[in-house]
Amino acid sequence: MILVFDINETLLDTAVLSPLFEKLFGKAAVRGEWFLTLEETWMTATLAGRYLPFGLLAKSALRQTGLRHGIHIDDDHQRELTDMLAALPAHPDAAPALAELRARGFQLTALTNGTLETVQHQLAHAGLDTSFDVILSVDSVETYKPSQPAYQYVADHWQVSTRELVMIAAHGWDLIGAASAGCRTGFIARPGKVIDPQLFEPDWQADSLIALSRQLMEEISPNSGEAICKG
């Protein structure tokens, strides 16, 4: 079983961006509005078949948020955002959970909607770069999660079927996409993240990565042929 992990919000804490949004908009809560705008932007680009790198979309989402609030967003503000994104800290439970899974023999994959260069920098800065067997970016296939080709890319890398992947993420949309591609799924309920059980039920879910990892270790053999995906 190969475990696949989403990065931003799932392993890395975007709450550290709040001071930037407090400075620009007078309310730290606008960070959530920006992220929803970013999600809408990359999903629209994917549906329209127009791929643009994550950093460009992150800046666009900030500009859109500024227009919505009547705030001018200049180049320095956009640069500050991308610099901060590249230096996000890990959630406290990330390193110990990943270490425990590796010690038990699981193969760990990072899968990000960001570019490969950015995610390599992010994980190195957060001290997680050596936690993974491989680090992958959708930039290589030019389609964002939750499109099915993004998850198939991981399966193709490992030369397995998507049934042998477990996607782990703090985003319901990511897990729905992974399940549609044939993966199994694990949900981490990071602060503010919920999943509607009437719409979708992941195979595993917990409030922390450590708790989720222990569920997986209890129920899955690392060398079994079962499929598990984490995004």
From TrEMBL:
Any idea which UniProt keywords this protein has? Hydrolase
Reaction(s) the record says it catalyses:
an (S)-2-haloacid + H2O = a (2R)-2-hydroxycarboxylate + a halide anion + H(+)
UniProt xrefs under SUPFAM superfamilies: HAD-like (SSF56784)
Q: Which InterPro entries match?
A: 2-HAD, HAD-like_sf, HAD-SF_hydro_IA, HAD_sf, PGP-like_dom2, S-2-haloacid_dehalogenase
The UniProt record lists the keyword Hydrolase: yes
Organism of this sequence: Modicisalibacter tunisiensis
Family that this chain belongs to: Belongs to the HAD-like hydrolase superfamily. S-2-haloalkanoic acid dehalogenase family.
**Pfam families assigned:** Hydrolase
| EC number of the protein | 3.8.1.2
| Highest taxon of source | Bacteria
Relate the protein's function as given in its record. Answer: Catalyzes the hydrolytic dehalogenation of small (S)-2-haloalkanoic acids to yield the corresponding (R)-2-hydroxyalkanoic acids.
Protein name as annotated: (S)-2-haloacid dehalogenase
